[in-house]
Each structure stands twice: as structure tokens, then as C-alpha cells.
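The material for today's practical consists of a large collection of protein records. An example says more than a description, so a record of this kind follows:
***
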Amino acid sequence: MQAMFKRLQEDLACVFARDPAARTRWEVALNYPGVHAIWLHRVAHALWQRHWKGLARFISTVSRFITGIEIHPGATIGRRFFIDHGMGVVIGETAVIGNDCTLYHGVTLGGTTWQKGKRHPTLGDNVVVGAGAKVLGPILIGDNARIGSNAVVVKPVPPNATVVGIPGRIIEANETQDTNERRQAIAKKIGFDAYGTANDMPDPVAHAINCMLDHIQAMDKRMDAMCYSIRQLGVSIEETEILPTLTDCEIHSGDSVKPDNSLISKQETQ
């Protein structure tokens, strides 16, 4: 009994550590569906392990109806697990979740096969999965990993990594200050400074453009070296024009496009 109350206190304490909106323990205990789902899952999981599987599934169904969170009673969940908001979270039968993990609404820990056996992911300790992310298949997500919102992860993730995008890509933010300064210089020279200016760029598109800036810089250095060598041979080279600055490109959304009033008037007359 004492151990049970200790677990309940841990559940409430982890909410205060990860949700600044939490005010009192009574508020959390009465109004947080993520906490309710965990408590009901523990009952269902205990029954599942004792082969009362029909009753366990019934409790999990009641929990889904009340909280909007579907956790299969066969799933194994560690301590201090927190589901923030929670609506639409799905955790499969063979999923394993470590200690101190956090899931946000719309997360799916699902399978990719109809065959029996291990078919759902395993999350290490202190893993955070952003809203709407899908982690699929019997893959291992390492300790302290971060999965961005709406990412789709189908391959293992090493510890301490950050994954974003569809399909999920690991972001590496270990670039040196010298690399960033060189990118900023070449971006300024060609009149493009929207990328290559941040120390940590968690965006695969930005990474691709940064690679292009590196390539342009290498070509620029090689061209300067070729011109210098030609001048050393006594050949005169005409000075080229300064690179023009690229104009800004603005992409308009559908909401920002003004409707053709003439067409609207024509439709109303018809």
C-alpha cells in the first residue's frame, strides 16, 4: 500500500515538473486525463499479467472513452510517465516505455506488421515525443532522445539525438563556430542570409541549403585561386561586376490571396 501511494505521488510530482500550468495536486488529480489514463492502465496491466485479459481490455476501453487516450493493457510503462493533454495518444500492446518519458497529444506508438510478437517501439529513459509524432515498428528510441512534432520515425534513434521530419531525420548540431561564420560570409556575399546564421538549425531543408553554401564557398575560393595564378603569368583579367543582391522572395498562402470580386459578382447575379 505504501509503495502504491509513493507511485501516485510520483505521478503528481512529475506533472508539476513538466507542466507550468499545473497549480495544485487536487487540480492535477481531478482534471488531467494523462494521469487518469496511467492510473487505469496500471490496473488493466496488472489484470493482463494475471491472464484476466478480457477484463483488462474492458478497463482500457473505459479509459479510452473517459480520457481519449488508448493504451493497450499489455504495454509496459515505467515510472514518472507523463502524457500532456493526451487526446489521440495510442500505445500498442508490445510497446515498452522507460522512466521519466513524456508524450504529447496525438502521439502513436504503433506497429507496422500484422504478425504476432514484438511489433511496437521501445522508448528508453527520459524520451520526449512531440505532438502528432508517429513512432512505428519494433525500433529502439535511445535514452534522452527527442522526437519533434509530427515526425514519422521508422528507424532506431540513438541516445541523446533529436529527430524531425517525414521520414524522421536525426539533426546534428555539432557544427563549429568557424563553419557558421564562413556560411554567413558567403550568404551575405550572394545576398542570401535567411539560412546559415544559426548555431543550431533543426531543419533538414536548412541543412541542405547550408551544404549548398559550403559548396559555393569552395567554388568561390577555387575561382579566386585560378584568377591569381593567371595574373601571376602576366595575363590581364577584366574585373567582373559585383554580384547583384538577390531580391526577397515572399510566398503567399491561400488566405492572403485577394479574391476576384468580378467573379464573385458574376456568380451572385447567376
Notes: Residues 190-201, 248-257, 263-268 have pLDDT under 50 and may be disordered. The chain has seven helices and 15 strands. The chain has two domains: 2-171, 177-248.
